[in-house]
Amino acid sequence: MTASTPRLWVGFLTLISTALMLISAGLYNGFPLVTSDTGTYLESGIHRVVPDDRPITYGLFTQITSLQFTLWLVIFAQGLLLGWLLLHYVRVLAPRLRHYPALQVLLIALAVWLTGASWFCSQLMPDIFTAMGILALGLLLMGVALGWKERLGLLAITLLAALMHSSNLLTFTLVVLSFGGTAWITGVFEKGLVKRVQWAVTTAVVLAGWLVLPSIHAAFGGGFVISKASPAFLMGRLIEAGIMDNFLSRNCQAGNEYSLCAFRDNLPNDAIGFLWDSNSPLIKTGGWQAHTDEYKYIIREVLTSPRYYPYLVSETVQATLRQLTHIGHGDGLTPFRENTNPYWKVSDLAYYELKEYMTSLQNRGALDFSALNERTYTTHLLAVAVLAGLLLTGLRRLLTPSAILVVVILSLGVVSNAVVTGGLANVLDRLQARVSWVMPFVALLLVVQYGPAILRRAWQRLGIGSLS
Protein backbone atom coordinates (compact mmCIF):
# COMPACT_ATOMS: atom_id res chain seq x y z
CA MET A 1 0.00 0.00 0.00
CA THR A 2 1.48 3.35 -1.04
CA ALA A 3 1.26 6.56 0.99
CA SER A 4 -1.39 7.92 -1.39
CA THR A 5 -3.74 4.93 -1.01
CA PRO A 6 -5.56 6.23 2.12
CA ARG A 7 -6.00 9.60 0.41
CA LEU A 8 -7.55 7.89 -2.62
CA TRP A 9 -9.96 5.96 -0.42
CA VAL A 10 -10.97 9.11 1.42
CA GLY A 11 -11.57 10.89 -1.89
CA PHE A 12 -13.59 7.94 -3.20
CA LEU A 13 -15.77 7.75 -0.08
CA THR A 14 -16.24 11.53 -0.11
CA LEU A 15 -17.48 11.40 -3.70
CA ILE A 16 -19.79 8.44 -3.05
CA SER A 17 -21.24 10.14 0.03
CA THR A 18 -21.81 13.34 -1.93
CA ALA A 19 -23.50 11.47 -4.79
CA LEU A 20 -25.86 9.64 -2.43
CA MET A 21 -26.76 12.91 -0.76
CA LEU A 22 -27.43 14.48 -4.18
CA ILE A 23 -29.95 11.75 -5.01
CA SER A 24 -31.53 11.84 -1.57
CA ALA A 25 -34.77 13.20 -3.06
CA GLY A 26 -35.07 10.08 -5.20
CA LEU A 27 -34.31 7.87 -2.21
CA TYR A 28 -36.95 9.71 -0.20
CA ASN A 29 -39.44 9.36 -3.05
CA GLY A 30 -38.81 5.63 -3.30
CA PHE A 31 -37.94 5.76 -7.01
CA PRO A 32 -36.19 8.15 -9.42
CA LEU A 33 -38.49 11.07 -10.20
CA VAL A 34 -40.18 11.28 -13.61
CA THR A 35 -41.98 13.92 -15.67
CA SER A 36 -44.23 13.73 -18.70
CA ASP A 37 -41.09 13.89 -20.91
CA THR A 38 -39.29 11.00 -19.20
CA GLY A 39 -41.03 8.38 -21.32
CA THR A 40 -39.85 10.00 -24.56
CA TYR A 41 -36.25 10.10 -23.35
CA LEU A 42 -36.30 6.47 -22.21
CA GLU A 43 -37.94 5.36 -25.46
CA SER A 44 -35.33 7.12 -27.59
CA GLY A 45 -32.60 5.18 -25.80
CA ILE A 46 -34.41 1.83 -25.81
CA HIS A 47 -35.25 1.92 -29.54
CA ARG A 48 -32.32 4.13 -30.70
CA VAL A 49 -34.74 6.53 -32.38
CA VAL A 50 -34.23 10.32 -32.56
CA PRO A 51 -37.35 12.07 -31.17
CA ASP A 52 -38.90 14.90 -33.15
CA ASP A 53 -38.68 17.41 -30.32
CA ARG A 54 -35.50 16.62 -28.38
CA PRO A 55 -32.02 15.06 -28.74
CA ILE A 56 -31.43 11.32 -28.47
CA THR A 57 -28.41 11.94 -26.24
CA TYR A 58 -30.05 11.63 -22.82
CA GLY A 59 -31.88 8.49 -23.94
CA LEU A 60 -28.52 6.94 -24.83
CA PHE A 61 -27.13 8.12 -21.48
CA THR A 62 -29.93 6.30 -19.63
CA GLN A 63 -29.25 3.12 -21.58
CA ILE A 64 -25.53 3.20 -20.86
CA THR A 65 -25.67 4.19 -17.19
CA SER A 66 -28.61 1.95 -16.29
CA LEU A 67 -26.69 -1.05 -17.66
CA GLN A 68 -30.18 -1.96 -18.92
CA PHE A 69 -30.71 -3.23 -15.40
CA THR A 70 -31.92 -0.49 -13.03
CA LEU A 71 -32.90 3.15 -13.39
CA TRP A 72 -31.37 3.90 -10.01
CA LEU A 73 -27.94 3.76 -11.65
CA VAL A 74 -28.94 6.61 -13.99
CA ILE A 75 -29.51 9.13 -11.23
CA PHE A 76 -26.53 7.77 -9.28
CA ALA A 77 -24.33 8.50 -12.31
CA GLN A 78 -25.79 12.01 -12.36
CA GLY A 79 -24.98 12.33 -8.67
CA LEU A 80 -21.37 11.26 -9.25
CA LEU A 81 -20.83 13.81 -12.02
CA LEU A 82 -22.48 16.64 -10.10
CA GLY A 83 -20.75 15.63 -6.86
CA TRP A 84 -17.34 15.74 -8.56
CA LEU A 85 -18.07 19.29 -9.76
CA LEU A 86 -19.37 20.53 -6.41
CA LEU A 87 -16.43 19.10 -4.49
CA HIS A 88 -14.09 20.91 -6.87
CA TYR A 89 -15.91 24.14 -6.11
CA VAL A 90 -15.57 23.61 -2.38
CA ARG A 91 -11.84 23.00 -2.69
CA VAL A 92 -11.28 26.00 -5.00
CA LEU A 93 -13.54 28.58 -3.35
CA ALA A 94 -13.36 27.40 0.27
CA PRO A 95 -9.77 26.10 0.60
CA ARG A 96 -9.98 26.32 4.41
CA LEU A 97 -11.98 23.07 4.13
CA ARG A 98 -9.51 21.40 1.76
CA HIS A 99 -8.29 18.93 4.40
CA TYR A 100 -11.71 18.26 5.97
CA PRO A 101 -13.67 15.98 3.59
CA ALA A 102 -16.47 15.42 6.11
CA LEU A 103 -17.04 19.17 6.34
CA GLN A 104 -17.03 19.40 2.54
CA VAL A 105 -19.85 16.86 2.31
CA LEU A 106 -21.77 18.55 5.13
CA LEU A 107 -21.46 21.92 3.41
CA ILE A 108 -22.82 20.49 0.14
CA ALA A 109 -25.59 18.78 2.12
CA LEU A 110 -26.55 22.14 3.62
CA ALA A 111 -26.61 23.73 0.16
CA VAL A 112 -28.81 20.90 -1.15
CA TRP A 113 -31.22 21.26 1.76
CA LEU A 114 -31.43 25.02 1.27
CA THR A 115 -31.89 24.91 -2.51
CA GLY A 116 -33.52 21.55 -3.30
CA ALA A 117 -30.91 20.69 -5.96
CA SER A 118 -31.41 16.99 -5.25
CA TRP A 119 -34.91 17.16 -6.73
CA PHE A 120 -33.34 17.77 -10.14
CA CYS A 121 -30.39 15.41 -9.75
CA SER A 122 -32.88 12.65 -8.85
CA GLN A 123 -34.98 13.07 -12.01
CA LEU A 124 -34.82 10.86 -15.08
CA MET A 125 -34.46 14.05 -17.08
CA PRO A 126 -31.53 15.96 -18.61
CA ASP A 127 -32.34 19.14 -16.65
CA ILE A 128 -29.52 18.67 -14.14
CA PHE A 129 -27.00 18.74 -16.99
CA THR A 130 -27.76 22.43 -17.62
CA ALA A 131 -26.40 23.22 -14.15
CA MET A 132 -23.50 20.80 -14.64
CA GLY A 133 -22.44 22.52 -17.84
CA ILE A 134 -22.60 25.98 -16.28
CA LEU A 135 -20.61 24.77 -13.26
CA ALA A 136 -17.99 23.17 -15.54
CA LEU A 137 -17.69 26.41 -17.52
CA GLY A 138 -17.16 28.28 -14.27
CA LEU A 139 -14.20 26.10 -13.32
CA LEU A 140 -12.73 26.24 -16.82
CA LEU A 141 -12.92 30.02 -17.10
CA MET A 142 -12.32 31.29 -13.56
CA GLY A 143 -8.56 31.34 -14.04
CA VAL A 144 -7.50 28.77 -11.44
CA ALA A 145 -4.70 26.31 -12.11
CA LEU A 146 -6.03 22.94 -13.19
CA GLY A 147 -4.24 19.71 -14.02
CA TRP A 148 -4.63 18.40 -17.56
CA LYS A 149 -6.76 15.49 -16.34
CA GLU A 150 -9.10 17.84 -14.50
CA ARG A 151 -9.33 20.15 -17.49
CA LEU A 152 -10.10 17.27 -19.86
CA GLY A 153 -12.76 16.01 -17.45
CA LEU A 154 -14.38 19.44 -17.27
CA LEU A 155 -14.32 19.84 -21.06
CA ALA A 156 -15.89 16.39 -21.43
CA ILE A 157 -18.66 17.27 -18.98
CA THR A 158 -19.24 20.58 -20.79
CA LEU A 159 -19.64 18.85 -24.16
CA LEU A 160 -21.80 16.07 -22.70
CA ALA A 161 -24.06 18.62 -21.00
CA ALA A 162 -24.32 20.68 -24.19
CA LEU A 163 -25.46 17.61 -26.14
CA MET A 164 -28.20 16.72 -23.67
CA HIS A 165 -30.62 19.41 -24.87
CA SER A 166 -30.67 21.92 -27.71
CA SER A 167 -31.36 24.73 -25.24
CA ASN A 168 -28.09 23.86 -23.48
CA LEU A 169 -26.15 24.41 -26.70
CA LEU A 170 -27.55 27.92 -27.03
CA THR A 171 -27.19 28.70 -23.31
CA PHE A 172 -23.54 27.64 -23.12
CA THR A 173 -22.76 29.49 -26.35
CA LEU A 174 -24.18 32.67 -24.87
CA VAL A 175 -22.09 32.15 -21.72
CA VAL A 176 -18.73 31.70 -23.45
CA LEU A 177 -19.29 34.47 -26.00
CA SER A 178 -20.60 36.99 -23.46
CA PHE A 179 -17.76 36.11 -21.08
CA GLY A 180 -15.22 36.55 -23.88
CA GLY A 181 -16.65 39.96 -24.73
CA THR A 182 -16.74 41.02 -21.09
CA ALA A 183 -13.19 39.78 -20.48
CA TRP A 184 -11.92 41.70 -23.51
CA ILE A 185 -13.66 44.93 -22.50
CA THR A 186 -12.61 44.80 -18.83
CA GLY A 187 -9.02 43.72 -19.52
CA VAL A 188 -9.30 40.30 -17.87
CA PHE A 189 -7.22 38.75 -20.66
CA GLU A 190 -4.61 41.52 -20.63
CA LYS A 191 -4.20 41.24 -16.84
CA GLY A 192 -3.59 37.51 -17.17
CA LEU A 193 -6.49 36.59 -14.90
CA VAL A 194 -7.72 34.21 -17.58
CA LYS A 195 -5.57 33.02 -20.47
CA ARG A 196 -6.99 33.54 -23.93
CA VAL A 197 -6.16 29.96 -24.80
CA GLN A 198 -8.33 28.73 -21.91
CA TRP A 199 -11.28 30.69 -23.21
CA ALA A 200 -10.59 29.70 -26.84
CA VAL A 201 -10.40 25.96 -26.10
CA THR A 202 -13.54 26.07 -23.94
CA THR A 203 -15.41 28.05 -26.58
CA ALA A 204 -14.28 25.63 -29.29
CA VAL A 205 -15.65 22.67 -27.31
CA VAL A 206 -19.01 24.40 -26.82
CA LEU A 207 -19.26 25.38 -30.48
CA ALA A 208 -18.28 21.83 -31.51
CA GLY A 209 -21.54 20.68 -29.97
CA TRP A 210 -23.41 22.36 -32.84
CA LEU A 211 -21.77 19.82 -35.16
CA VAL A 212 -21.52 16.83 -32.85
CA LEU A 213 -25.22 16.71 -31.93
CA PRO A 214 -26.59 16.71 -35.51
CA SER A 215 -23.88 14.18 -36.42
CA ILE A 216 -25.14 11.86 -33.68
CA HIS A 217 -28.70 12.31 -34.93
CA ALA A 218 -27.61 11.55 -38.49
CA ALA A 219 -25.83 8.40 -37.29
CA PHE A 220 -29.12 7.17 -35.78
CA GLY A 221 -31.17 7.99 -38.87
CA GLY A 222 -32.64 11.24 -37.60
CA GLY A 223 -31.04 13.54 -40.15
CA PHE A 224 -28.32 16.16 -39.68
CA VAL A 225 -30.42 18.43 -37.48
CA ILE A 226 -30.34 19.80 -33.94
CA SER A 227 -34.11 19.32 -33.52
CA LYS A 228 -36.74 18.59 -36.14
CA ALA A 229 -39.37 20.38 -34.07
CA SER A 230 -37.55 23.71 -33.59
CA PRO A 231 -39.80 25.62 -36.04
CA ALA A 232 -42.91 24.43 -34.20
CA PHE A 233 -41.47 25.50 -30.82
CA LEU A 234 -40.52 28.92 -32.13
CA MET A 235 -43.95 29.31 -33.71
CA GLY A 236 -45.54 28.49 -30.36
CA ARG A 237 -43.44 31.19 -28.70
CA LEU A 238 -44.47 33.77 -31.31
CA ILE A 239 -48.10 32.85 -30.75
CA GLU A 240 -47.75 33.23 -26.98
CA ALA A 241 -46.07 36.63 -27.47
CA GLY A 242 -49.01 37.82 -29.58
CA ILE A 243 -46.72 38.52 -32.55
CA MET A 244 -48.47 35.94 -34.75
CA ASP A 245 -51.80 37.72 -34.28
CA ASN A 246 -50.15 40.81 -35.75
CA PHE A 247 -48.45 38.87 -38.55
CA LEU A 248 -51.58 36.96 -39.59
CA SER A 249 -53.76 40.05 -39.51
CA ARG A 250 -51.39 41.64 -42.03
CA ASN A 251 -50.70 38.66 -44.26
CA CYS A 252 -53.84 36.54 -44.32
CA GLN A 253 -55.75 39.52 -45.73
CA ALA A 254 -53.21 39.71 -48.55
CA GLY A 255 -54.42 36.36 -49.86
CA ASN A 256 -51.63 34.18 -48.49
CA GLU A 257 -52.78 30.67 -47.73
CA TYR A 258 -50.88 29.89 -44.55
CA SER A 259 -52.30 26.96 -42.61
CA LEU A 260 -52.62 29.19 -39.54
CA CYS A 261 -54.87 31.68 -41.33
CA ALA A 262 -57.86 29.42 -40.69
CA PHE A 263 -57.15 29.74 -36.93
CA ARG A 264 -56.18 33.42 -36.76
CA ASP A 265 -59.17 34.22 -34.56
CA ASN A 266 -58.75 31.13 -32.41
CA LEU A 267 -55.03 30.85 -31.65
CA PRO A 268 -54.03 29.36 -28.25
CA ASN A 269 -53.01 31.71 -25.46
CA ASP A 270 -49.67 30.04 -24.84
CA ALA A 271 -46.99 27.91 -26.48
CA ILE A 272 -47.88 24.84 -24.42
CA GLY A 273 -51.43 24.91 -25.77
CA PHE A 274 -50.15 25.24 -29.34
CA LEU A 275 -47.65 22.38 -28.98
CA TRP A 276 -49.55 19.85 -26.92
CA ASP A 277 -53.31 20.50 -26.90
CA SER A 278 -55.20 18.01 -29.08
CA ASN A 279 -57.34 20.85 -30.44
CA SER A 280 -54.43 23.14 -31.32
CA PRO A 281 -53.82 24.33 -34.91
CA LEU A 282 -50.55 22.38 -34.90
CA ILE A 283 -52.24 19.05 -34.18
CA LYS A 284 -55.29 19.70 -36.35
CA THR A 285 -53.17 20.50 -39.41
CA GLY A 286 -50.93 17.44 -39.33
CA GLY A 287 -48.59 17.62 -36.35
CA TRP A 288 -45.00 18.57 -35.68
CA GLN A 289 -43.52 18.43 -39.17
CA ALA A 290 -46.53 18.92 -41.45
CA HIS A 291 -45.80 22.62 -41.97
CA THR A 292 -42.09 22.89 -41.18
CA ASP A 293 -41.25 24.84 -44.32
CA GLU A 294 -44.18 27.20 -43.82
CA TYR A 295 -43.22 27.85 -40.18
CA LYS A 296 -39.59 28.46 -41.17
CA TYR A 297 -40.70 30.98 -43.79
CA ILE A 298 -42.98 32.84 -41.37
CA ILE A 299 -40.30 32.92 -38.64
CA ARG A 300 -37.77 34.26 -41.14
CA GLU A 301 -40.24 36.94 -42.24
CA VAL A 302 -40.79 38.01 -38.63
CA LEU A 303 -37.08 38.06 -37.77
CA THR A 304 -36.19 40.11 -40.84
CA SER A 305 -39.02 42.66 -40.50
CA PRO A 306 -38.02 45.68 -38.35
CA ARG A 307 -41.67 46.39 -37.50
CA TYR A 308 -41.61 43.35 -35.18
CA TYR A 309 -38.31 44.17 -33.44
CA PRO A 310 -39.81 46.29 -30.62
CA TYR A 311 -42.23 43.47 -29.80
CA LEU A 312 -39.50 40.80 -29.94
CA VAL A 313 -37.16 42.80 -27.69
CA SER A 314 -39.91 43.68 -25.23
CA GLU A 315 -41.16 40.11 -25.04
CA THR A 316 -37.67 38.67 -24.60
CA VAL A 317 -36.75 41.12 -21.81
CA GLN A 318 -39.94 40.64 -19.81
CA ALA A 319 -39.90 36.85 -20.33
CA THR A 320 -36.30 36.74 -19.10
CA LEU A 321 -37.11 38.77 -16.00
CA ARG A 322 -40.16 36.62 -15.28
CA GLN A 323 -38.14 33.44 -15.76
CA LEU A 324 -35.50 34.60 -13.27
CA THR A 325 -38.15 34.66 -10.54
CA HIS A 326 -39.61 31.24 -11.36
CA ILE A 327 -37.50 29.04 -9.10
CA GLY A 328 -40.11 26.86 -7.40
CA HIS A 329 -39.94 23.07 -7.09
CA GLY A 330 -42.53 20.45 -7.98
CA ASP A 331 -43.27 21.61 -11.54
CA GLY A 332 -44.27 18.50 -13.51
CA LEU A 333 -43.73 16.05 -10.63
CA THR A 334 -47.30 14.75 -10.64
CA PRO A 335 -48.34 11.07 -10.56
CA PHE A 336 -47.76 9.07 -13.75
CA ARG A 337 -49.48 5.77 -13.17
CA GLU A 338 -50.95 3.17 -15.55
CA ASN A 339 -51.48 4.15 -19.19
CA THR A 340 -48.94 6.95 -19.14
CA ASN A 341 -45.78 7.17 -21.23
CA PRO A 342 -43.36 7.08 -18.25
CA TYR A 343 -45.14 3.96 -16.91
CA TRP A 344 -44.85 2.13 -20.22
CA LYS A 345 -41.18 2.98 -20.69
CA VAL A 346 -40.18 2.06 -17.14
CA SER A 347 -41.92 -1.24 -17.83
CA ASP A 348 -39.90 -1.69 -21.04
CA LEU A 349 -36.53 -0.97 -19.44
CA ALA A 350 -36.91 -2.36 -15.90
CA TYR A 351 -40.29 -4.10 -15.54
CA TYR A 352 -39.31 -5.59 -12.17
CA GLU A 353 -39.05 -2.04 -10.76
CA LEU A 354 -42.68 -1.23 -11.55
CA LYS A 355 -43.80 -1.96 -8.00
CA GLU A 356 -41.27 0.55 -6.65
CA TYR A 357 -42.35 2.99 -9.34
CA MET A 358 -46.06 2.64 -8.56
CA THR A 359 -45.62 2.89 -4.78
CA SER A 360 -43.32 5.93 -4.90
CA LEU A 361 -44.48 9.05 -3.10
CA GLN A 362 -44.79 10.78 -6.48
CA ASN A 363 -47.18 8.19 -7.84
CA ARG A 364 -49.19 8.21 -4.63
CA GLY A 365 -49.57 11.97 -4.93
CA ALA A 366 -47.83 12.40 -1.58
CA LEU A 367 -45.15 14.94 -2.47
CA ASP A 368 -45.51 18.39 -0.94
CA PHE A 369 -43.13 21.17 -1.99
CA SER A 370 -44.59 24.08 -0.02
CA ALA A 371 -41.96 24.08 2.76
CA LEU A 372 -39.12 23.55 0.30
CA ASN A 373 -40.30 26.40 -1.91
CA GLU A 374 -40.53 28.80 1.04
CA ARG A 375 -37.00 27.83 2.02
CA THR A 376 -35.78 28.12 -1.58
CA TYR A 377 -37.14 31.63 -2.12
CA THR A 378 -35.66 32.81 1.18
CA THR A 379 -32.31 31.23 0.34
CA HIS A 380 -32.17 32.89 -3.06
CA LEU A 381 -32.98 36.31 -1.64
CA LEU A 382 -30.27 35.93 0.99
CA ALA A 383 -27.81 34.76 -1.69
CA VAL A 384 -28.50 37.86 -3.78
CA ALA A 385 -27.93 40.04 -0.71
CA VAL A 386 -24.69 38.24 0.18
CA LEU A 387 -23.27 38.40 -3.35
CA ALA A 388 -24.25 42.05 -3.73
CA GLY A 389 -22.64 42.85 -0.39
CA LEU A 390 -19.41 41.09 -1.36
CA LEU A 391 -19.11 42.42 -4.89
CA LEU A 392 -20.56 45.93 -4.68
CA THR A 393 -18.87 47.16 -1.49
CA GLY A 394 -15.37 47.48 -0.15
CA LEU A 395 -15.53 43.82 0.87
CA ARG A 396 -14.70 43.02 -2.75
CA ARG A 397 -11.03 43.58 -1.91
CA LEU A 398 -11.11 40.52 0.33
CA LEU A 399 -12.09 38.24 -2.56
CA THR A 400 -9.63 36.60 -4.92
CA PRO A 401 -9.98 37.42 -8.64
CA SER A 402 -11.05 33.80 -9.23
CA ALA A 403 -13.88 34.14 -6.74
CA ILE A 404 -15.14 37.28 -8.46
CA LEU A 405 -14.82 35.71 -11.91
CA VAL A 406 -16.77 32.59 -10.98
CA VAL A 407 -19.67 34.68 -9.65
CA VAL A 408 -19.70 36.55 -12.97
CA ILE A 409 -19.57 33.34 -15.03
CA LEU A 410 -22.30 31.55 -13.08
CA SER A 411 -24.45 34.68 -13.19
CA LEU A 412 -24.04 34.72 -16.97
CA GLY A 413 -25.12 31.08 -16.98
CA VAL A 414 -28.25 31.69 -14.91
CA VAL A 415 -29.26 34.73 -16.96
CA SER A 416 -28.48 33.01 -20.28
CA ASN A 417 -30.69 30.10 -19.27
CA ALA A 418 -33.50 32.55 -18.53
CA VAL A 419 -33.02 34.29 -21.89
CA VAL A 420 -33.07 31.02 -23.86
CA THR A 421 -35.89 29.25 -22.04
CA GLY A 422 -38.03 32.30 -21.36
CA GLY A 423 -37.41 34.00 -24.66
CA LEU A 424 -37.61 30.98 -26.95
CA ALA A 425 -39.70 28.43 -25.06
CA ASN A 426 -41.80 28.85 -21.91
CA VAL A 427 -41.61 30.64 -18.57
CA LEU A 428 -41.72 27.65 -16.21
CA ASP A 429 -40.41 26.96 -12.71
CA ARG A 430 -38.71 23.75 -13.83
CA LEU A 431 -36.66 25.47 -16.51
CA GLN A 432 -35.11 28.04 -14.17
CA ALA A 433 -35.02 26.21 -10.85
CA ARG A 434 -32.78 23.60 -12.48
CA VAL A 435 -29.92 26.16 -12.58
CA SER A 436 -30.77 28.97 -10.15
CA TRP A 437 -29.51 26.98 -7.16
CA VAL A 438 -25.85 27.37 -8.25
CA MET A 439 -25.83 30.99 -7.03
CA PRO A 440 -26.84 30.23 -3.40
CA PHE A 441 -24.32 27.37 -3.46
CA VAL A 442 -21.47 29.70 -4.43
CA ALA A 443 -22.68 32.37 -1.99
CA LEU A 444 -22.50 29.79 0.81
CA LEU A 445 -18.92 28.86 -0.16
CA LEU A 446 -17.87 32.51 -0.11
CA VAL A 447 -19.45 33.01 3.31
CA VAL A 448 -17.53 30.02 4.66
CA GLN A 449 -14.24 31.22 3.19
CA TYR A 450 -14.46 34.97 3.81
CA GLY A 451 -16.96 35.18 6.66
CA PRO A 452 -14.33 34.99 9.44
CA ALA A 453 -12.28 37.82 7.88
CA ILE A 454 -15.40 39.95 7.49
CA LEU A 455 -16.32 39.35 11.13
CA ARG A 456 -12.81 40.26 12.28
CA ARG A 457 -13.01 43.50 10.33
CA ALA A 458 -16.41 44.30 11.81
CA TRP A 459 -15.20 43.62 15.36
CA GLN A 460 -12.12 45.78 14.83
CA ARG A 461 -14.18 48.69 13.49
CA LEU A 462 -16.43 48.45 16.51
CA GLY A 463 -13.31 48.70 18.67
CA ILE A 464 -14.06 45.44 20.45
CA GLY A 465 -10.86 43.76 19.39
CA SER A 466 -9.95 41.06 16.94
CA LEU A 467 -11.05 37.48 16.91
CA SER A 468 -8.27 35.00 17.18
From TrEMBL:
The chain crosses the membrane at residues 7-28, 69-90, 102-122, 128-148, 199-226, 403-425, 437-455. The keyword Transmembrane helix applies. This is Uncharacterized protein. Keywords: Membrane, Transmembrane, Transmembrane helix.
